[in-house]
Task: inverse folding
């Protein structure tokens, strides 16, 4: 009888996971279609730092279509992000305690906000400083191709947006007890080295100006991550104390 109950439990979890994945895929597909409808306007915005779409030249026949599909897909990912994050947390929500569930509702909008902040920072700070250097390197004028330009810009926006999720990742790790705020504070020297490597990987140019521009917000995010780890640690202690009181 126990085996049957266990089997039904596993089957229900699989069905629930399938349902959440299906909703996420549908949300991503609908958001991508919406992104495609507005792809022309989005392309104009993305091409703004180089003077608009007229500043680019295509070589291949399908190059423009491919570039616009990339824009539509990234727009779909950004638009569907809150729904996807919600579906992920909704799947694990039944297994969480009441005091843990409030953090889930706190983190869903925060994850979207941090990602959007990273995208805005990359567009308004990194791109205006990196593109003049790249387009006129060694005094050679460059006419960007849609496929390479949009691929470059979209990758930069995506990875910077992802890097801005650092405080939330630290919060989750601290909440399950893998790291603590004291450990993060003690390892600040190692953190700076890691941040410098990450900044070198994310920034489009190897010059110290762009690396510095990227390192400043990452260092600020590291400090914010320590505060998040403090909050997660306190919440974890309260949860453990409550469990101990219940057990007693």
Result:
């Amino acid at each position: 009888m126990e085996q049957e109950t266990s089997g039904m439990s596993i089957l229900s979890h699989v069905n629930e996971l399938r349902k959440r994945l299906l909703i996420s895929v549908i949300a991503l597909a609908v958001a991508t279609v919406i992104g495609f409808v507005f792809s022309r306007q989005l392309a104009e915005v993305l091409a703004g730092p180089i003077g608009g779409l007229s500043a680019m030249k295509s070589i291949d026949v399908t190059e423009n279509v491919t570039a616009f599909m990339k824009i539509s897909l990234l727009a779909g990912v950004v638009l569907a992000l809150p729904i996807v994050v919600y579906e992920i947390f909704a799947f694990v929500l039944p297994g969480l305690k009441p005091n843990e569930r409030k953090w889930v509702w706190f983190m869903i909008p925060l994850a979207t906000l941090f990602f959007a902040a990273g995208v805005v920072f990359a567009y308004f700070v990194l791109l205006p400083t990196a593109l003049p250097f790249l387009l006129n390197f060694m005094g050679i004028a460059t006419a960007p191709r849609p496929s390479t330009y949009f691929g470059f810009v979209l990758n930069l926006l995506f990875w910077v947006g992802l890097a801005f999720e650092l405080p939330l990742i630290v919060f989750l790790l601290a909440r399950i007890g893998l790291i603590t705020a004291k450990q993060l504070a003690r390892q600040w020297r190692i953190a700076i080295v890691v941040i410098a490597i990450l900044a070198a990987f994310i920034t489009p140019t190897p010059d110290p100006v762009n690396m510095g521009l990227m390192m400043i917000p990452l260092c600020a995010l590291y400090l914010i991550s320590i505060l998040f780890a403090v909050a997660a640690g306190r919440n974890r202690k309260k949860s453990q104390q409550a469990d101990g009181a219940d057990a007693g």
In short: The radius of gyration is 22 Å. Confidence is low (pLDDT under 50) at residues 1-8. The longest helix spans residues 208-247.
